[in-house]
Amino acid sequence: MTSSERDLFAALKHFSDPGLCRDLLRKLENLLRESGNSLRFMEVCGTHTVSIFRSGLRSLLPAALTHISGPGCPVCVTHDREIAACLSLAGMSGVRLATFGDLLRVPGPDGQSLKDAQARGARADVLYSPLEALSLARANPRDKVVFLGVGFETTAPAVAVALQKALELDLRNFFVLSMHKLVPPALRALLEEKESPEKAAPGSASLSIDAFILPGHVSTILGLEPYAFIADEFGKPAVVSGFSPADILQSLLLLLERKIAGKAEILNQYRLAVSARGNPRARKILLEVFTIRDALWRGLGRIPGSGLVPGEAYARFDAWKVFDPALPEARENTGCRCGLVLRGRIEPPECPLFGRACTPAHPAGPCMVSTEGGCAAHYKYNPRLSHV
Amino acid sequence: MSEPVILLDAGSGGRASQRLIRGLFFKFFSNPILEEMDDAARLDLSGPLAMSTDSYTVDPLEFPGGDIGSLAVHGTVNDVAMLGADPAYLSCAFIIEEGFSVALLEKLARSMAEAAAGAQVLIVTGDTKVVPRGAADKLFINTTGIGRILVSRPPQGKNARPGDAILLSGTLGDHGLTVLSSRSKLNLSPRLRSDSAPLNHMVGALLRGLKEVHVLRDPTRGGLATTLNEIAGQSGVVCVVREDSLPFTPEVLAGCALIGLDPLYLANEGKLICILPPEEAPEALEIMRRFPEGRQAAQIGVVLAPGEQYKAAPGQVILKTALGGERLLGMLEGEQLPRIC
After folding, report:
1. At CA B148, angle to CA B146 and CA B168, rounded to 5?
2. Nearest to A388 among B184, B253, B307 (CB)
3. Residue A54 contacts B, CB cutoff 8 Å
4. Chain B contacts of A28, Cβ < 8 Å?
5. SS3 A203
6. Where are the domains of chain A?
7. Residue ranges of the alpha helices (H) in A324-370?
8. Cβ(B264)–Cβ(A11) under 8 Å?
9. Above pLDDT 70, what percent of chain A?
10. Residue A50: its H or E element
11. Mean pLDDT for the stretch of residues A176-205
């Protein structure tokens, strides 16, 4: 092993050490019992969702802790209409899509995904970095290479760098279909409860979440300041957390202590990777290249100021402008309760579609689309296996 | 001069085909049965037989620890062996894309011959087709294997019984992650290696040394999780696996953590799952550990009746996590894709 692999491996082992986790769990249980308190928490990031389920942590959480999975990963919140636009691009002559692998399976209208389009002859190359899309464009000057830009603040800076490079190289056959989304505006939308009242479940008018576990990766870019409104305006504590079970348990302890003390604060548990200032250089590049606009979120609808598109200087790379792909009106997807799941009002199995009309093979809503969505995690890991 | 390549002619059935078959394949695969050069191979086998076929399309063709040639031998040999059989003969069919390097074909044929010698099987019949550029991706190989079943009650997927022990012959995920890493140029650890190996010798030793073996299966595509789900379904039982008993190399654990893959769903090409009565488990582990590919053999779980201990249905697999929690270990949905963040 290289030394960095050795370090990573050692860290992995340490942070999922069963003894350490048992101690933290015991502390949580004691604090809950002594204070007579409870805690309803939501994790925003799909990687946390998967960690909580996959490690078996979910089956060990004390009854007074209620776990609610949030919007998950940037891929699962890619809107039907955005997928429809990708499919429309895939059908244009000379277009060669370049994409991260997990976008391929996301269904658009009528359940069609890029995987279906691929099987019917559309060209889509799976890449691991947007810079690879630049190389693809340079190596294939006759193809119009369109990179499908999905991702939160974590991924978007790399796409911004690719656009800067494309400008520098004066590439004429490289484009980006930006579907990038920003996390803080979505959190605000969840907290502001923009959902129309007729969709709400009876008797649960308010967002029933006490505290948030904030995404670790996104926060390496953002730092803590963009989350301040959660504490200042909505009076809820939140913590940027690492991804191992021990990280998550420690974060839950921090949140519970704040709730008991009645203190709304934004905390940083993931100091290993996240600094309070985040990564100002990445944010600067992001704002140099992209401009902020409204974006469509699967399951949440249109959220103001939550998306990124290439700015003026980069307009000629903007696939929305250059190709003007069809953005058909999405049909209302009947019966899907992802909106309620995301707001913590119902558990995934309470949705009438769960496990029947909506499965990982044929997902109806965002929470089932990605392996990191809350419904997919419930379906896959079934935490209700309690002993007979 | 440019490097010699395979021309469409070589699949014509005429002289060019003969040259390829005699000059290249016979050189490596030679044995008396093959050299009869009849339309079919004449074999001498009797009693209950096991037969299995598989097509190999791995990309890239060569990877650390193996190549499409050795894989095409090991994969089929192992499938035949899992029915408690001793694989004896293989057929092999090549589908070659026009323009394929002759030198590489020779290298792969040599690797196939070495793998066959290692597994002690003979390649007794074959076929070569050359297709126009673009009609196939470089090289596909199909092999079919046949062999005698060694025991009167052969191990089968339907035979797992409540109370049985679940054993695994070694580390998980090595082949899958190695191939993925070489395909995508991910630059994961240079120490990653495919575990591609023949398991027939180990199977023979197990069947000879033990009174009863209920199930043998090699967890190839879909990995351990998928294979255990298949077995649990066929037998109508529940499998419970202890996460902290699963063997992994540190390279696989670190690589999977880095790119967001679950090693329990990654393919293995030189490992077997053995399910048998618990009193046979210590002896079985001892036998497995005598083989280099079985050094890290371990008991990884037990078989339960549905409803025993857990609210689980027949066909379900439960993972007891290292933390002490429990969750379902389901089948793989589609292909495993690395996450983006």
Report:
1. 85
2. B307
3. yes
4. none
5. coil
6. 14-191+201-327
7. 338-342, 366-369
8. no
9. 90
10. helix A46-54
11. 73
What are the CB-based long-range contacts (under 8 Å, 24+) for A135-143?
A136/A96, A136/A98, A137/A166, A137/A171, A137/A173, A137/A174, A138/A169, A138/A171, A140/A96, A140/A173, A141/A173, A142/A94, A142/A173, A143/A94, A143/A95, A143/A96, A143/A173
Residue A383: what pLDDT? 63
pLDDT given at position A104: 86
Across residues B116-136, what is the average pLDDT? Answer: 95
CA atoms lying within 13 Å on the CB side of residue A271: 4
Residue A206's pLDDT band (boundaries 50, 70, 90)? low
Residue pair A156/A180 in contact (Cβ under 8 Å)? The answer is yes
Q: Which of A121-125, A322-326, A356-360, B193-197 has the lowest mean pLDDT?
A: A356-360
Contacts of B181 in chain A (CB under 8 A): none
CA distance B145 to B134: 29
* pLDDT per position as a tens digit, A117-140: 999 999 999 888 899 999 999 999
Any bridge partners for residue A98, and if so which? A125, A147
Domain A14-191+201-327 of CATH type 3.40.50.11750: yes
> What is the predicted pLDDT for the residue at B16?
81
- Give the integer Cα–Cα distance in Å for A98 and A126: 6
Delineate the domains of chain B, giving CATH numbers in brackets: 8-149 (3.30.1330.10), 157-328 (3.90.650.10)
CB contact under 8 A, A5 and B251: yes
8 Å CB contact of A217 and B257: no
Provide the token pair at A226: 């963009």
B225 alpha-carbon distance from chain centroid: 15
CB-count exposure of residue B200 (10 Å: 0-12, 13-18, 19+): buried
Question: Hey, what are A132's tokens?
Answer: 């690879």
Range picked from A69-78, A310-319, A365-374, B21-30 for highest mean pLDDT: A310-319
List Cβ neighbours of A152 (8 Å cut-off, separation of 6 or more): A74, A180, A181, A182, A183, A215, A217, A218, B341
Report chain A's C-alpha Rg in angstroms: 21
For residue B334, the chain A residues in CB contact (below 8 A) are: 105, 360-361
- CA–CA distance, A130 with B340 (Å, rounded to integer): 11
Residue A39 has pLDDT above 80, yes or no: yes
Q: What is the pLDDT of residue B22?
A: 84
pLDDT in the model for residue B226: 95
pLDDT tier for residue A209 given thresholds of 50, 70 and 90: confident
Nearest alpha-carbon partner for A21 in A250, A216, A214, A213: A250
B294 phi-psi bin (left φ>0, alpha ψ -120 to 50, beta other): alpha
The residue among B323, B328, B333, B335 with the most chain A CBs within 10 A of its CB, best to mutate, is: B323
**The pLDDT of residue A388:** 58
The answer to whether the pTM exceeds 0.80 is yes
To 10 degrees, what angle do helices A46-54 and A245-261 make? 110
Å from A257 to nearest chain B CA? 23
Mutate one of B192, B242, B251, B327 to test the A interface: name it (highest A CB count within 10 A): B327
The residue type found at A112 is Q
Q: Between the ranges A12-21, A280-289, B330-339, where is the mean pLDDT highest?
A: A280-289
Strands B139-149 and B49-56: antiparallel
**A180-181 vs A301-310, strand pairing mode:** antiparallel
A148 vs B49: CA distance, rounded Å: 52
Instruction: Tell me how many degrees the CA angle A143-A163-A280 measures, rounded to the nearest 5.
Output: 160
Confidence of residue A198 (pLDDT cuts 50, 70, 90): very low
